Amino acid sequence: KRRMPPLGTEHLTARDVARAAELLRAGANVAFPTETVYGLGGLASDDRAVAGIFAAKNRPSFNPLIAHVADLDMLHSIALVDAQAERLAQAFWPGPLTLVLPLRAGAALSPLVSAGLATVAVRMPAHPLARALLAAVAAPVAAPSANPSGKISPTTAAHVLDGLSGRIDAVLDGGPCGVGVESTILGLAPLQLLRAGGLPVEEIEALLGTVVAAPASPTTPSAPTAPGQLASHYAPDAAMRLDAKEAQEDELLLGFGAVAADVNLSPSADLLEAAANLFAAMHQLDDLAAQKGLRKIAVSPIPETGLGRAINDRLRRAAAPRD
Ligand code: TXA
Ligand code: MG
């Protein structure tokens, strides 16, 4: 069971790494320093801890997050690593490089981390406190930058507290970040720069002896250039109808609140629980639809507040017409 929402945010320092790790293992949200920017961490296997990250940031959409690992064993436990990925990891980890890799089947990873995609972004940070923390947690930690949505990324613990004090459980203070810009994100199949960042792409090109392609043009001309918005997001095969009071005969119902539904995001209308269940629910409905030979999913109304905005954003994308 998750603790009550935090009243204060614990301010931890280097000698409190064990405390920070204990909080993360218990499902709390803890900000921590990396060499790029401060991340807002949650145990990557814990749906509610990951949903808590989105809630604390007030993020209006569920972009996939980076899973931070302490060592290569942790990498292999969540992703499939080919020779090229292995080579990049050997050359540049720990450091400001994130690799987008195929998700390992059966990995202990919340689908909210990968936004339901078949790939996962992984990085091994170089900051000594981040390394000590991840080793103590002994499991991958999901973390976007530790700032409220729409604000700039924090490079000191004070920045983190300015934006998120009272909304997260703790911040581990490691002083100012050395790199100060987010990690470089590299897609591997095909080889593609998804975000320019702390590791110059020239260094990657020098290692591999090939040119790294810039991101493909956005699928929609108006799409922002953020990688999470360029990447395709998980959508069920069945067509979705939002804001439905009830399901028609040829539809399954994805419920929210006290309704009789085929799958219910949260019978008690708890948005944190609903967010934690979202991607798993869509997969479950696809299976059910295939079983029952149905092609449509009706979705209960979900309030457009707090995490509800992110849930509705994903549902609207999933409901949008597609080829
Ligand atoms: O330096 C950093 O990378 C910092 C520190 C905390 O590690 N983290 C960070 O996370 O910048 P965030 O969430 O702000 O950025 C992660 C980016 C998102 O834009 C997301 O779309 C992209 O990585 N991403 C994550 N998983 C992906 C995937 N499977 N495919 C494509 N892009 C992905
Ligand atoms: Mg960010």
TrEMBL record:
It is an enzyme of class 2 (transferase). The keyword Methyltransferase does not apply. SUPFAM superfamilies: YrdC/RibB. ATP binds at R59, N63, T119, S145, S153, R195, Y234. The keyword Acetylation does not apply. Keywords: ATP-binding, Cytoplasm, Nucleotide-binding, Nucleotidyltransferase, Transferase, tRNA processing. Its EC number is 2.7.7.87. L-threonine binds at T36, H68, R123, A143, S183. GO terms for cellular component: cytoplasm. Its main location: cytoplasm. Pfam families: Sua5_C, Sua5_yciO_yrdC. It is found in: Cytoplasm. One of its GO terms (biological process) is regulation of translational fidelity. Belongs to the SUA5 family. PANTHER family: SUA5, THREONYLCARBAMOYL-AMP SYNTHASE. This is Threonylcarbamoyl-AMP synthase. It comes from Aquimixticola soesokkakensis.
